[in-house]
Write a structure and sequence with these properties.
The chain has about 110 residues and is an alpha+beta fold. The chain folds into 2 domains: about 15-55; about 60-100, Roll (SH3 type barrels), CATH 2.30.30. The chain has one helix spanning about 20-55; strands at about 65, 70-75, 80-85, 90-95, 100. It is rod-shaped and about 85 Å long.
């Protein structure tokens, strides 16, 4: 028969250390937090900084593509908006709607 209170005894005759189990648990949580930071948060903030820098360098004559897929040439840049011409239409869109500046430059039209 087992003595009373002996149900926590490991077959080797030692009692598990609860402090070590807690430390191992918190270490696992910390490692998962670091992985989440380097896999999700850091790349997203890096892309946001690159997008903000691209919007600051936006100027008249740049060929841009909006998040909606509209391709046009910038006519004027204001504080919050960009005026652009696409085909025979003049559009005014928010700066945040500009997804990228086309590296091939302005169109020949």
């Amino acid at each position: 028969m087992l003595a009373q209170g002996a149900e926590n005894v490991v077959p080797g005759g030692t009692v598990p250390n609860p402090k070590a189990d807690q430390l191992r648990f918190f270490l696992l949580i910390a490692v998962m937090g670091l992985v989440m930071y380097f896999m999700m948060i850091r790349p997203q903030s890096k892309r946001a900084k690159e997008h903000a820098a691209m919007l600051k360098t936006l100027k008249a004559g740049d060929k841009v593509i909006t998040t909606g897929g509209v391709v046009g040439v910038v006519i004027a840049v204001k504080d919050r908006t960009v005026s652009m011409r696409s085909a025979d239409t003049k559009l005014e869109v928010l700066k945040t709607a500009v997804a990228e500046v086309d590296p091939s430059g302005a169109s020949e039209s």
